């Protein structure tokens, strides 16, 4: 994945839909499912991370918890959900150790503030989902090594993420042979092999379904290939994980709507962090790029800036239906940017300034409880450590069972 942090690249209509209409690319039969997903510890998530992936993680938890809004069949079909902060993937690129430690802690606090992981007292009922640090479960690295012995180098070199990194290192897509060789020397084995580690992340828990973005389909196919290779050689251990298509929103940069919203963009005004203050949010939305057409219409090809604002409004408005004093009778299932554009026009709202004001209000209302909860959690380090320990222990219980089976199949169990 551009690593695991890019689990959020598929089209999304609204949060209300994602709460109840999570489907697989294959026809989902009534079955017991184990869902796994991971995210890199990049510190504070931005709005795109939240609307694109994290909200859907919370929706999946509602299935496991038995939300009354979902059918009994769909609830029963979810056996376990595991969410991991994947530090081993993060170090495939150079990291400042002090910054990485801080960002791991911030990532955990942010996910908890968004509703991912344990809810309420840790001593109470079993958490709705297991939330843990990948690097605290050493079986991830062990299983990855087993898989490394089954995976061809040529297959890894054909992965689109490796080729894109190679192009960057070689200063362009059309590198000569000598330039490619030099570029390869500047890249590290971990970057080439991280899709294998990713497969280990998934298969260690015998995950049957994995929420991924469109740009991650190739990596999930590799996970399936590796599982199939292992099963064929040593005997069946792993299910073949299925793509879980979750309706998501691809949020674009506020300053360059031709690009996705990203933490790596040099201009901080291009993104809204989930911890931004109302003043910061209003300033960033006010400066968002639009166009010279004062009308409000949804056209993601010709009017990317305005369409991006409408998409954000639709995603936020789905769970805050009176956000920004914009009252509407549109049902939550129907909240889509083109429908919102028509409703805004019908109510006499015109011009980008008015639209931006409404969008800013919606974002502020959406993120207010998350920002407040994060501010509380980041100071409660003992609680964060307790959550991490609980998740580690739960994950290791499952991981140890899988690895005992793997070692026995391979012939590396106790003599």
Overview of this protein structure:
- One of its GO terms (cellular component) is mitochondrial matrix.
- InterPro entries: aa-tRNA-synth_I_CS (IPR001412), aa-tRNA-synth_Ic (IPR002305), Rossmann-like_a/b/a_fold (IPR014729), Trp-tRNA-ligase (IPR002306), Trp-tRNA_synthetase (IPR050203).
- This protein is 50% helix and 7% strand.
- The protein is globular.
- α6 crosses α10 and α12 runs antiparallel to α15.
- β5, α11 and β6 form a beta-alpha-beta unit.
- The chain has 415 residues and is mainly alpha-helical.
- The N terminus is likely disordered.
Give the H and E element order. HEEHHEHHEHHHHHEHEHHHHH
The largest pleated sheet is described as: 3 strands, mixed
List low-confidence stretches: 1-30, 67-76, 319-334
Strand order of the largest sheet: 1-6-5
Compute the average pLDDT: 81
Query: Any idea what the shape is?
Result: globular
Number of beta strands = 6
GO molecular function: ATP binding; tryptophan-tRNA ligase activity
Subcellular location: Mitochondrion matrix
Keywords: Aminoacyl-tRNA synthetase, ATP-binding, Ligase, Nucleotide-binding, Protein biosynthesis
Main location: mitochondrion
Task: Note the main attributes of this structure.
415 residues; mainly alpha; 3-stranded mixed β-sheet; 3-stranded parallel β-sheet; 50% helix; globular; disordered N terminus
């Amino acid at each position: 994945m551009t690593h695991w942090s890019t689990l959020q690249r598929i089209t999304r209509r609204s949060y209300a839909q994602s709460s109840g209409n999570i489907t697989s690319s294959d026809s989902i039969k009534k079955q017991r499912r184990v869902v796994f997903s991971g995210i890199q510890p990049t510190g504070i998530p931005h709005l795109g991370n939240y609307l694109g992936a994290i909200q859907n993680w919370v929706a999946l938890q509602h299935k496991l918890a038995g939300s009354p809004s979902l059918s009994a069949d769909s609830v029963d079909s979810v056996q376990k959900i595991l969410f991991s902060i994947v530090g081993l993937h993060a170090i495939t690129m150079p990291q400042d150790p002090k910054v990485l430690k801080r960002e791991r802690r911030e990532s955990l606090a942010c996910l908890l503030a968004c509703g991912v992981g344990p809810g309420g007292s840790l001593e109470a009922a079993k958490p709705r989902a297991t939330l843990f640090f990948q690097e605290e479960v050493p079986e991830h690295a062990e299983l990855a090594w087993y898989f490394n012995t089954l995976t061809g180098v040529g297959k890894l070199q054909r992965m689109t993420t490796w080729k894109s990194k190679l192009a960057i290192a070689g200063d362009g897509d059309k590198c000569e042979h000598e330039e490619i060789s030099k570029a390869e020397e500047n890249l590290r084995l971990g970057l080439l092999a991280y899709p294998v580690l990713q497969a280990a992340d998934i298969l260690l828990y015998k995950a049957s379904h994995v929420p991924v973005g469109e740009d991650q389909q190739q990596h999930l196919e590799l996970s399936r290939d590796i599982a199939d290779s292992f099963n064929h050689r040593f005997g069946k251990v792993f299910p073949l994980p299925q793509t879980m298509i979750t309706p998501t929103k691809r949020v674009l940069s506020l300053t360059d709507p031709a690009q996705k919203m990203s933490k790596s963009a040099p201009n901080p005004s291009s993104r809204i962090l989930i911890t931004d203050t109302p003043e910061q949010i209003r300033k960033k939305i006010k400066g968002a790029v639009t166009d010279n057409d004062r009308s409000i219409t949804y056209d993601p090809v010709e009017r990317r800036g305005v369409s991006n604002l409408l998409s954000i409004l639709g995603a936020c408005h789905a769970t805050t239906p009176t956000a920004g004093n914009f009252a509407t009778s549109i049902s939550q299932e129907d909240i889509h940017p083109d429908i919102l554009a028509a409703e805004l026009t019908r109510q006499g709202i015109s011009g980008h300034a008015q639209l931006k004001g409404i969008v800013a209000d919606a974002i502020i209302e959406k993120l207010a409880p998350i920002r407040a909860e994060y501010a509380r959690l980041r100071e409660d380090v003992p609680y964060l450590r307790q959550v991490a320990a609980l998740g580690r222990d739960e994950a290791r219980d499952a991981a140890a069972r899988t690895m005992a089976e793997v070692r026995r199949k391979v012939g590396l169990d106790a003599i």
